[in-house]
């Protein structure tokens, strides 16, 4: 259903327009059950003047409000550019909405740099938080990490945080120090990948996945790539360790690139999130200890605690240790009640047995 809407408005998240990412195949799996309950969505990066993905989201989430962030300002007020973009897409049979930016449920936040942590922290989002966050901005790993750390507290419990375009496409706007930082954080050893060599081409080379490889060297490399700096050394790792997430690949390209996203569900409340002091501070910690810490925290809470939308699900809850004495008392009460009810029968049986025994003794 979602890919159909992406194609309807010519969004590259679908299977028809430009990169044909096929992301709808992954998103529809987790978002369809909640699409009528979602109230607020935040998306970083518009993509093009016609806001194709926004129009698709508006139809997919009929009750939601949309908070749209983009670093540009003038591009979306340029009527000539907007008219040209509409003509190009209508030639392919795609739809659009000329009044998208004044629609009642759309709240544009232009001029916001998604790599600027201060600006992200100051976004005027709903006080209760948002249900879904989609990062489709610069696609640079450093920027994605900054946004994830800054916006994670604004995501409601049970909500979904989606980071797009992890391993596909060139980054022509990243040169100099920015390009060197991307290469340091997410290097690739692939060859013959042409214009797609700017991205990690193999999943095991991406820090989100590389951190799961059970060798000290790979874990250390992933930790350094995911670090936001000395002040927040384990911010991203805590999010990944303490919440449910999975990495999707929905398409592949001839140059070696993959259409891939990471989808994180907030399964641990902020109030119970462990502090950085509880994380291993030794970067050379044994792989076994690190694996044990991940295993102990990665399991999600019961569905009734994950999201208010799943409150109707019956969930098995293990009996707490404090309930054992109650069971013992109940068992004792049951035995005493049984004795009281069958007391007369038991006494009669005892007397008959005594009579038989005494008679047999007299016979002898």
Question: What's this model, at a glance?
Answer:
Helix content is 38%, strand content 13%. It has 364 residues and is an alpha/beta fold.
Number of domains: 2
Helices and strands, in N-to-C order? HHEHEHEHEHEHHHHEEHHHH
In one word, what is the shape? elongated
Main pleated sheet? 7 strands, mixed
The Cα radius of gyration reads 30 Å
Which spans have pLDDT < 50 for at least 5 consecutive residues? 273-324, 360-364
Tally of alpha and pi helices: 14
The CATH topology assignment of the largest domain is: Rossmann fold
Describe the structure.
This protein is of the alpha/beta class and about 375 residues long. The protein has 2 domains: about 1-310, Rossmann fold; about 320-364. It has 14 helices and 7 strands. A 7-stranded mixed beta sheet has the order 3-2-1-4-5-7-6, covered by helices on one side. Helix 1 (about 1-10) crosses helix 2 (about 25-30) and helix 1 (about 1-10) crosses helix 3 (about 50-60). About 35% of the residues are buried. Mean pLDDT is about 80; it is low at about 275-325 and about 360-364.
